[in-house]
Amino acid sequence: MVCITSCLNTTGQVTAQKEETTTMKNKIIRTDAEWKKTLTPEQYRVLRTGGTECAFTGEYYKYKDNGVYICAGCGNEVFRSSKKFESGTGWPSFFEPVDKNCITEKRDTSHGMVRTEVLCSRCDGHLGHVFNDGPQPTGLRYCINSVSLAFKTIASSSKIETATFGSGCFWCSDAAFRMLEGVKSVEVGYMGGETRNPTYKEVCAGNSGHAEVSQVKFDPTSISYDKILDIFWKIHDPTSLNRQGADTGTQYRSAIFYHSPEQKAAAEKSRDELQKTMARKIVTEITPAAEFFKAEDYHQDYYNNNQQLPYCKAVVQPKIEKIKEHLNKAKAGK
Ligand SMILES: [Zn+2]
């Protein structure tokens, strides 16, 4: 990268527009005059005219706080602090964006070089460039202008979130959720019934009213609730009422137990989106989380501890393979 014009002081000017959501359906289109009103001159130069800030001058190249970097133009979440690394270039560097949809990549032949430009996919603001000399696991270096970014802090210790799902036999969902980066722990148990501290035997008899559930603790700075929902939908058939394969009974019902109004809204939205692609009606219950009763120890991480058992080989393993494939594809951005 080269420093094309002199740098202006932008300290204190980066004001994030946090209220805006990150869906690309709400594409932001403004005239140059409108952008000039909302951005500082340096933000305008970089974001709207493809400029580059001088190395070692930006606010974020040494920044280490835990949180999410958003586009300074529109508030779109573009990079996470967990994917940031010290490149020594003087620009904030990341090895992976928040997801494949939040940025757009474009061939750039300006200044006698062939590079790949990185733009915010929501407002088309210029963020920086991506190069092939980054660290593993991606080998990429997203070299981003500080001035194109603003930062949302997320206090790490207090911000572990909980999510609870019923999707048939809990051995399957337990194994699937454990594979996700950003998931801190998974426990299987029972929720949504009438009795307290039920045993597996009672739940299996189908009279306790409980669903077999996996309860996930996750770090929202590393993985979004939406991503976990995505795996939940993929691990089972949400159109099958009180049944998954050969497992029958209300304990095997498809259910999302939400822990916040935000989770409820996200769950309903993802269900409605998925319904558009399915011929049969989704029967998943979306209800407030109730008390979680942890299942017996031998059920925890059952698949990883019992991979050789016929049920695990026949029923759990194919689902896990499918999720693995899905995650690899997502990582490859396909
Ligand atoms: Zn943007």
What do you see in this structure?
With 334 residues, the chain is an alpha+beta fold. It has two domains: 122 residues, Beta Complex (Metal Binding Protein, Guanine Nucleotide Exchange Factor, Chain A), CATH 2.170.150; 173 residues, Peptide Methionine Sulfoxide Reductase, Chain A, CATH 3.30.1060. Helix 3 packs parallel to helix 8. The N terminus is likely disordered. The site of zinc ion (ZN) has 8 residues, from loops. Zinc ion (ZN) binds next to loops.
Topology:
Elements: H1 32-38, H2 41-49, E1 67-71, E2 77-80, E3 84-85, E4 93-94, E5 103-108, E6 115-120, E7 126-131, E8 141-144, E9 149-153, E10 161-167, H3 170-178, E11 183-191, H4 200-205, E12 211-218, H5 225-235, E13 243-244, E14 247-248, E15 254-258, H6 261-275, E16 285-288, E17 293-294, H7 302-305, H8 310-331
Parallel strand pairs: 15-16
Antiparallel strand pairs: 1-2, 1-9, 3-4, 4-8, 5-6, 6-7, 7-8, 10-12, 10-15, 11-12, 11-17, 13-14
The site of zinc ion has 8 residues, from loops.
Q: Please work out how many helical segments DSSP would assign.
A: 8
Taking strands numbered 1, 2, ... along the chain, how are they ordered across the largest sheet? 3-4-8-7-6-5
Which whole number gives the mean pLDDT? 89
Q: Indicate the CATH architecture of the largest domain.
A: 2-Layer Sandwich
Determine and state the CATH class of the largest domain.
Answer: Alpha Beta
Question: How do the helices and strands follow one another from N- to C-terminus?
Answer: HHEEEEEEEEEEHEHEHEEEHEEHH
The whole-angstrom Rg is 23 Å
> Alpha-carbon distance between the termini?
28 Å
> Uncertain runs with pLDDT below 50, 5 residues or more?
1-23
Question: How much helical structure, as a percent, in the residues?
Answer: 10-25%
Structural class: alpha+beta
Q: What is the tally of beta strands?
A: 17
The coarse silhouette is elongated
**If you consult CATH, what is the topology of the largest domain?**
Peptide Methionine Sulfoxide Reductase, Chain A
Query: Bound small molecules, which ones?
Result: zinc ion
